[in-house]
Amino acid sequence: MNRRAWLLFLLVSVLWGIPYFLIKVAIDDLSPVFVVAGRGLIAALVLLPVAAARGTLGALRARLGTVSVLAVVHIIGPFLLITYGEVHITSSLTGLLIAVEPVVIALLLSRSEPLTRIRVAGLVLGFAGVAVLVGLDVSGDRLGLLGAGMVLLAAVSYGVATIFVQRRAADIPPETLAGGTTAITAVVLTPFAILTWPTEPVHANAWAALAALGVFCTAVALLAFYALVNEAGSNRAGLVTYVNPVVAVLLGVLLLNESLRWSTVAGFALVAAGCWLSTRPTPIREQPAEPVPVA
User: Fold this and answer.
1) Is 118 inside a domain boundary?
2) 40 in a domain, yes or no?
3) Quick one: which of 9, 117, 205, 224 has the fewest CB in 10 Å?
4) Rounded distance between C-alpha atoms, residue 94 and residue 32, angstroms
5) d(C-alpha 154, C-alpha 175), whole Å
6) Residue 278's closest CA among 82, 86, 169, 126?
7) Could you give the count of Cα atoms lying within 13 Å of 295 in the half-sphere of its Cβ?
């Protein structure tokens, strides 16, 4: 990857490691659907003026179907799954489970990128890591298992969305793509958010968390992520989940007093190793040179 791609990679890695902590803060006073709708609305209010100023809103009208599909698989679906999932599990575990996304992408790309022995070993290690995380951290807790299942389903949705961006939406400007998906999210979910409007006083930290989720973890992060996919491809872009869990765990342990178990460290190590192996490029075998005929 070039320097610009690396900068985008680091930016997205950090910005998408923070949301799990902020979600945990916001859902203390706000419903999950309110949080997701609020994220979408705030991000759309930031992004659409940017797209208008750059004169790229016309691309949104021309590709509304593509943008709508992406809004469902990259924002509405996974954001709701993660936010409802965090009602039952810690922000640290949420960030760790999302780290399985590169394994999902490797599986989805297996037809175009053959599964070598190393990549298969990576897939096995990745799923073993998930089994350790889920089996030991939420064992016997039905609601915990439900929350973990929601987050894993969100990781699958993220994987599908990442490939979809590269194959179907690479020609749409990032500010238009991000603005369109967040605007659609706000339109779809705002009626449900109104039904769950808080009846009790909401603490200032919950509003602040929601604002940060919308501006930084959604608007800025989506802009950077879509640019990263165009710059480096879906496989490499999915590797942002190498860094995300580290940020998520540190914030959860330091600011939310979440416990750091040996199973958490072991599970993440397996997931990280699996992701690294399963996303290694397939070596290109050189064809033997044809013999030069002797005159």
Assistant:
1) no
2) yes
3) 117
4) 15
5) 23
6) 126
7) 0
Distance in angstroms (rounded) separating the CA atoms of residues 286 and 294: 24
| Continuous H helices in the chain | 3-15, 19-26, 32-53, 57-62, 64-71, 77-85, 91-98, 101-108, 117-137, 142-168, 174-195, 204-214, 221-232, 234-237, 244-255, 262-278
Cβ atoms within 10 A of the Cβ of 175, count? 26
C-alpha 34: how far from chain center = 19
Domain, as residue range, for 77 = 3-99+142-257
Q: Check: CB of residue 136 under 8 Å from CB of residue 261.
A: yes
The pLDDT confidence band at residue 67, using thresholds 50, 70 and 90, is very high
Total residues found in the chain within this entry:
295
- Output 275 or 65, whichever has higher pLDDT: 65
Would 110 be classed as within a structural domain?
Answer: no
Please say whether the beta carbons of 266 and 137 come within 8 A: no
Q: Tell me the pLDDT tens digit for each residue of 167-190.
A: 898 889 999 999 999 999 999 999
Separation between Cα atoms, residue 241 and residue 94, nearest integer Å: 12
Highest mean pLDDT among 7-16, 179-188, 275-284: 179-188
107 in any annotated domain: no
Q: What percent of the chain has pLDDT over 70?
A: 82
- Could you give the CA distance from residue 78 to residue 164 in angstroms, rounded to a whole number? 15
